[in-house]
Amino acid sequence: MKEVIIATKNEGKVKEFKAILTPRGYDVKSLSDINYTEDIEETGQTFEENAIIKAETISKATGKMVIADDSGLSVDYLGGRPGIFSARYAGEEKNDLANLNKVLKELEGTIKEDRSARFRCALALSVPGQKTKTTEGVVEGYITEAPNGANGFGYDPIFLVKDKDQTMAQLSSEEKNKISHRADALKKLSILLDQEEPK
Q1: Which of 9, 43, 57, 197 is 20 to 30 Å apart from 170, CA to CA?
Q2: What is the helix, strand, coil percentage profile of the chain, to 5?
């Protein structure tokens, strides 16, 4: 099996990557698995820039193939916020509930049409000695007026998926892995991974 490090300690994210990459013959490791504890400063202005910073830093430190993602919620009414600050929107301590409550508070009194939003995910694939490659995935939807659903993580309970009458947190893992922004970006990344595999 080919080892690939996913540049996160977030178990929810690792689970999604494993579901898609393990059947392709990859041994997926998280930062916790390899005891990587360095704090990487995400100084990029976009999801893509931050994903590249993380992937290249960890690949350089470990000499391994690394996939890093930077993803978040972009709400039109809020001018694209929380955007790259999604994980720490309500403060430096990452708190999913506080973050989504802040978004709900900022959207109080708005109609559904003003609550359009999308999840974006940028993935960076860093392989030692090669140029880093990136892909992006997007899923469109709306912000609900209250959280709904117990699956997923982050903003999933308040993100109503367009064309479905369910929030991301009401979908099963299988359904989410088919339509999520991360799944979209990963499908595109799979094509890049195929190019990395020895002929």
Answers
A1: 9
A2: 40, 25, 35
Contact 158, 86 (CB under 8 A): no
- Per-residue pLDDT, averaged over 120-146, amounts to 95
Tokens of 126: 């860093």
* pLDDT of the residue at 119: 96
Summarize pLDDT for 74-83 with one digit per residue, the tens. Answer: 999 999 999 9
**Residues tagged active-site:** 70
Contact predicate 81/75, CB 8 Å? yes
Half-sphere exposure of 118 (CA within 13 A, CB side): 13
d(CA 178, CA 146): 24
**Residues marked as binding?**
8-13, 41, 70-71, 153-156, 176, 181-182
Length, in residues, of the chain: 199
CATH (one of 3.40.50.1700, 3.90.950.10, 3.40.30.10, 1.10.150.130) for 2-196: 3.90.950.10
Share of the chain above pLDDT 90, in %: 68
Structure pTM? 0.85
Residue type, 102: K
Treating both helix axes as pointing N-terminal to C-terminal, what angle do 11-21 and 181-196 enclose, rounded to 10 degrees?
50
